[in-house]
């Protein structure tokens, strides 16, 4: 990944840290480094167990790699850091060993000016059939429908400016059907990715997702394979992220 990032970015680096005797690495590449205020777009590259992890989270990593290619040479209003995290999956989830916790804490400890963060977490699974979409609360199917044919922009209630502006830009790009899910942090699934660590440190953060196990029953299974994904719609999600980023003011 470092090698691929290095083809396109202004700078590429590892953020190394130890857990016990093992060394782990986040991989970071940056664009628009002349700007002080930065945006973080992150995705975890580890997989749960011995499986391919096509949707979880090879799709997020693919988004980072493609965004790196697309951002090269762009005139940007913000510095954009694409960050590939390690140790998002169990047994490290919700611990201070998560790569995203290490990264968010670094930003806070060094008083780095962060506009906001978006976690790209499973963006490749879509279904047009009825009853292909579940929810943490059954009543939500009356609001959002029962078809898993959209990407979800997840934010907590009371979201700050970055999240509001990013979502507006994503919706305006009109690349793929998208729905906004706003809820308190205690609702199941709303904090099931790396953005939770940026919330911990007070940053404006959100998640872009196909809703994970609420739709994709291959979640954390050996059946999470490339042939189950809708690559065309996944590509449109990446295009929406890119267009939102370059038009943010």
Apparent shape? globular
Query: What is the architecture at the second tier of CATH?
Result: 3-Layer(aba) Sandwich
Provide mean pLDDT, rounded: 96
Write down the secondary-structure element order: HEEEHEHEHEHEHEH
In DSSP terms (H or I, runs of 4 or more residues), the helix count works out at: 7
The first-to-last residue Cα distance is 29 Å
Q: Examine the coordinates and then state which fold CATH places here, giving the name of the CATH topology.
A: Aminopeptidase
Q: How many discrete structural domains?
A: 1
Name the beta content range. Answer: 15-25%
Set down the secondary structure blueprint.
Layout: H1 2-6, E1 11-19, E2 22-31, E3 38-44, H2 54-71, E4 79-85, H3 99-109, E5 114-121, H4 140-144, E6 151-156, H5 161-173, E7 178-183, H6 195-200, E8 205-209, H7 231-247
Helix pairs in contact: 2-7, 5-7
Structure, explained:
With 249 residues, this protein is of the alpha/beta class. Helices cover 30% and strands 23% of the residues. It contains 7 helices and 8 strands; from the N terminus they run H-E-E-E-H-E-H-E-H-E-H-E-H-E-H. It has helices at residues 2-6, 54-71, 99-109, 140-144, 161-173, 195-200, 231-247; strands at residues 11-19, 22-31, 38-44, 79-85, 114-121, 151-156, 178-183, 205-209. A hairpin with a 2-residue loop joins strand 1 (11-19) and strand 2 (22-31). Helix 2 (54-71) packs across helix 7 (231-247) and helix 5 packs across helix 7 (231-247). The longest helix has 18 residues, at 54-71. GO terms for molecular function: metalloexopeptidase activity.
């Amino acid at each position: 990944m470092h090698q691929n990032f290095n083809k396109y970015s202004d700078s590429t680096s590892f953020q190394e840290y130890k857990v016990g005797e093992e060394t782990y690495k986040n991989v970071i590449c940056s664009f628009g480094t002349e700007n002080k205020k930065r945006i973080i777009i992150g995705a975890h590259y580890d997989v749960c167990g011995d499986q391919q992890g096509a949707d979880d989270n090879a799709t997020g990593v693919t988004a980072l790699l493609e965004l790196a290619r697309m951002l090269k040479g762009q005139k940007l209003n913000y510095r954009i850091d694409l960050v590939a995290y390690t140790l998002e999956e169990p047994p490290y989830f919700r611990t201070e060993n998560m790569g995203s916790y290490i990264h968010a804490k670094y930003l806070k400890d060094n008083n780095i000016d962060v506009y906001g963060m978006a976690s790209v977490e499973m963006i490749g699974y879509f279904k047009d059939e009825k009853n292909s979409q579940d929810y943490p609360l059954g009543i939500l199917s009356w609001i959002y429908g029962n078809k898993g044919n959209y990407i979800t922009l997840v934010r907590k209630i009371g979201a700050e400016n970055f999240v509001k502006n990013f979502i507006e830009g994503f919706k305006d790009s009109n690349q793929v059907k998208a729905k906004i899910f706003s809820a308190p942090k205690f609702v199941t699934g709303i904090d099931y990715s790396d953005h939770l660590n940026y919330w911990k440190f007070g940053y404006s953060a959100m998640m872009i997702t196909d809703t994970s196990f609420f739709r994709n029953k291959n979640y954390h299974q050996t059946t999470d394979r490339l042939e189950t994904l809708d690559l065309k719609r996944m590509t449109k999600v990446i295009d929406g992220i890119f267009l939102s980023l370059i038009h943010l003011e």
